[in-house]
Amino acid sequence: MRKSYVFAAILSIFLFIAFLTLVLARTARYTSEAPFVSIWGQFEPKNRHSGWLVLKYESGLKNLPCRPDSDGIDSCGIAQIHLDGTWPDLERKSGIHGTYMDPITAARMLNWAMDHGELGRWTAAQKLHLVP
Q1: 126 and 63, same structural domain?
Q2: In the chain, pLDDT over 70 holds for what percent of residues?
Q3: Is the same domain home to 85 and 127?
């Protein structure tokens, strides 16, 4: 009789630890994906796939510091936007204000560019044949 209680207690502890591990793993996954959920929300549904492709190609979905791009011009952030006048020009045309280092603002700007024929400014769009 005593052995069955010990076995039941050990089994209960094991099941509780397994359940707790699953809950914590799921919570960590959703927490790490939360910023990207916010970024995807900035894209119109028709632009989400292309926007994801551009961001993946340009930065690997990382908010990178400013660095010279393939053409030698400093590019910054998740969208790798040129600082040579591209950001100020798009900011002026779109009315979207903020910093290129904010992933949400950069995604909004990319979405606007996709809707207004400015996607060709991104090397990724050209290499991925997203623009003619």
Answers
A1: yes
A2: 81
A3: yes
